[in-house]
């Protein structure tokens, strides 16, 4: 398998009501060329945005949650970025008496409705939770305030009369994640800074690149001992993140602890990969600047759906990002969120469907594969999921429809079906007539100024990167009549994670309990409804209509030998 840098790709979809003339193009999709793995797609619930959904009627709550999280009718988001408050709603709003005093943590079990939202999205199979702090509480900082910048006391060049707060801040962040564990929500990653190169009138705290590397060495071992990963640095601009990643890589101890490098897209897009020493990279925040609500797909504005689709494509194919996290899924005004809500009613922007074209069918654990075309108006990328399906996403920037002939090479699909999902002014991930795949090829038309997602399934054996059958598979003991069997199938190991597939037989209303060995943690799941308990180390899976198999990705967290155990019962 060849691993190379980013390349262009192309795709097509059956056109509806298109102009009489169209161009013809060809594209090759090559499973032998591998780029980055995909951790997922998501958005942030910081600054009270979870409460906007919670305050709605139950009917509207369900509709909005389905729009954001349903993997069949909505965007299928798979990552939730939580905001760690530094205001009066934080877990330690008052100074305990100094950095060495006994902490005075408080936990209300709500966290500005973020706990409520996290529990809701677990029902959609979401298990990747990234907790990020915009600032430390003001009493830990050089300016004595949780906003307007300032720096963490104790860092190089940031001495304070109150003392060195570095370890206290690390403990504070880890305690926040532990509180979520008590609620049955397993936080995976902790970020200690947001936009450290920017000062604002709201929650903010400055770090230089050297200071960020310094603090990563403080938080890293504390977080790791509790089973959490450390993330850095969510800088303003992809280019703004580069000096932070460079400082971390230049310090072997800091590089050891930072598992994921994160940057925003404000001011500079991910047109090329971050140098991260082989660690995963996330585009962890972006939305176009806006003060007006815009629901349009293609009206010539930066907040149009088609413009957002182009940004996502660039990040995936230029920046080789492993995850794409938009700013807000829902907001009240002026933020270019996917959905605008006022606590009662809501309105949906085409930006949501631009994300859904990628996030619904490119599932966690997928791998971006080769996709090439000579057509300069086609923005194409392709992905292979762990279940063997191949996803091709085609954005046609031209003002005419384009007929595309696709050659599927080394994908494991020679005969099968390509189902197009169309997004444009009149359609929102709307299923089109399936297209037959024969001899490893199919032809379809991408309408003008449209985005099409093809979900391609084959009649032949799934590709080798899907979790294979294995003689080392483990099964729950043979069940008596009226019970069920759960069998684990070890899958791909990639970096600090590995995949597992669970096959269930004997009952359709099964309940599978998956038990992990600490400090391993599940990062993503698919094809089942899951909940967590036992501090995040016990996962309960139930059918979600996807069949009698499901899967999940587990982070080693320093333990690369243990594997999960499973048991099955009838619900």
UniProtKB/TrEMBL annotation:
State the residue spans of region: Disordered.
Answer: 455-490
Q: Which UniProt keywords apply?
A: Glycosidase, Hydrolase, Signal
**PROSITE patterns reported for this sequence:** CBM2 (PS51173)
Q: Which residues cross the membrane?
A: none
SMART domains linked to this entry: CBD_II (SM00637)
Biological process GO annotation list? carbohydrate metabolic process; glucosylceramide catabolic process
Name the residue ranges with Low complexity bias.
471-488
A GO CC term assigned to this protein in UniProt: membrane
A single Gene Ontology MF term assigned here is: polysaccharide binding
The record ties this protein, via InterPro entries, to: CBD2, CBM2/CBM3_carb-bd_dom_sf, CBM2_carb-bd_dom_sf, GH, GH30_C, Glyco_hydro_30, Glyco_hydro_30_TIM-barrel, Glyco_hydro_b
Q: Where is the CBM2 domain?
A: 477-571
Q: Please give the Pfam families that the UniProt record associates with this protein.
A: Glyco_hydro_30, Glyco_hydro_30C
Query: Which protein family is it in?
Result: Belongs to the glycosyl hydrolase 30 family.
* Protein name listed in UniProt: CBM2 domain-containing protein
């Amino acid at each position: 398998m060849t691993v190379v840098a980013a390349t262009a790709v192309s795709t097509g979809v059956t056109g509806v009501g298109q102009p009489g003339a169209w161009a013809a193009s060809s594209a090759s999709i090559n499973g032998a060329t591998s780029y980055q793995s995909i951790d997922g797609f998501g958005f942030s619930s910081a600054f009270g945005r979870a409460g906007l959904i919670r305050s709605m009627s139950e009917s509207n709550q369900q509709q909005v949650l389905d729009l954001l999280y349903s993997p069949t009718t909505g965007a299928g988001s798979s990552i939730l970025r939580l905001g760690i408050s530094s205001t009066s709603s934080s877990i330690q709003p008052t100074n305990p008496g100094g950095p060495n005093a006994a902490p005075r943590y408080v936990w209300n079990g709500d966290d500005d409705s973020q706990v409520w939202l996290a529990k809701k999205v677990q029902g959609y199979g979401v298990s990747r939770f990234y907790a990020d702090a915009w600032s430390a509480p003001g009493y830990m900082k050089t300016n004595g305030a949780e906003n307007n910048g300032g720096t963490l006391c104790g860092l190089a060049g940031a001495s304070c009369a109150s003392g060195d707060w570095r370890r206290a801040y690390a403990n504070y962040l880890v305690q926040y994640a532990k509180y979520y564990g008590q609620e049955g929500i397993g936080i995976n990653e902790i970020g200690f800074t947001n936009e450290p190169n920017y000062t604002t009138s709201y929650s903010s705290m400055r770090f230089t690149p050297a200071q960020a590397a310094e603090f990563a060495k403080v938080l890293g071992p504390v977080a790791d001992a509790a089973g959490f990963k450390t993330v850095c640095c969510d800088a303003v601009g992809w280019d703004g993140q580069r000096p932070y990643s460079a400082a971390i890589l230049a310090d072997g101890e800091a590089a050891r602890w930072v598992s994921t490098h994160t940057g925003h897209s404000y001011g500079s897009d991910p047109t090329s990969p971050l140098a991260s020493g082989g660690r995963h990279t996330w585009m962890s925040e972006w939305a176009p600047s806006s003060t007006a609500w815009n629901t349009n797909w293609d009206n010539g504005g930066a907040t149009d759906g088609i413009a957002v689709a182009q940004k996502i494509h660039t990040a995936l194919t230029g920046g080789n990002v492993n995850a794409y996290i938009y700013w807000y899924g829902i907001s009240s005004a002026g933020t270019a969120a996917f959905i605008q809500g006022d606590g009662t009613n809501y309105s949906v922007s085409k930006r949501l469907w631009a994300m859904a074209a990628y996030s619904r069918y490119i599932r966690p654990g997928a791998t971006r594969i080769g996709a090439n075309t000579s057509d300069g108006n086609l923005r194409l990328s392709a992905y292979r999921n762990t279940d063997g399906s191949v996803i091709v996403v085609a954005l046609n920037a031209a003002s005419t429809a384009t007929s595309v002939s696709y050659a599927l090479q080394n994908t494991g699909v020679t005969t099968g079906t390509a189902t197009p999902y169309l997004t444009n002014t009149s359609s929102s991930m709307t299923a089109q007539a399936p297209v037959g795949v024969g001899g490893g090829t199919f032809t379809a038309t991408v309408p003008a100024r449209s985005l099409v997602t093809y979900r391609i399934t084959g009649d032949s054996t799934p590709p080798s990167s899907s979790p294979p059958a294995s003689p080392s598979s483990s099964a729950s003991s043979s069940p008596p009549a009226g019970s069920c069997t759960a069998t684990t199938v070890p899958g791909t190991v990639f970096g600090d994670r590995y995949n597992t597939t669970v096959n269930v037989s004997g009952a359709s209303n099964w309940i599978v309990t998956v038990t992990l060995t600490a400090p391993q943690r599940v990062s993503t799941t698919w094809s089942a409804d899951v909940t967590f308990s036992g501090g995040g180390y016990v996962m309960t899976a139930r059918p979600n209509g996807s069949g009698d198999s499901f899967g999940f990705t587990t982070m080693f967290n320093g333990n690369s030998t243990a594997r999960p155990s499973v048991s099955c019962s009838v619900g």
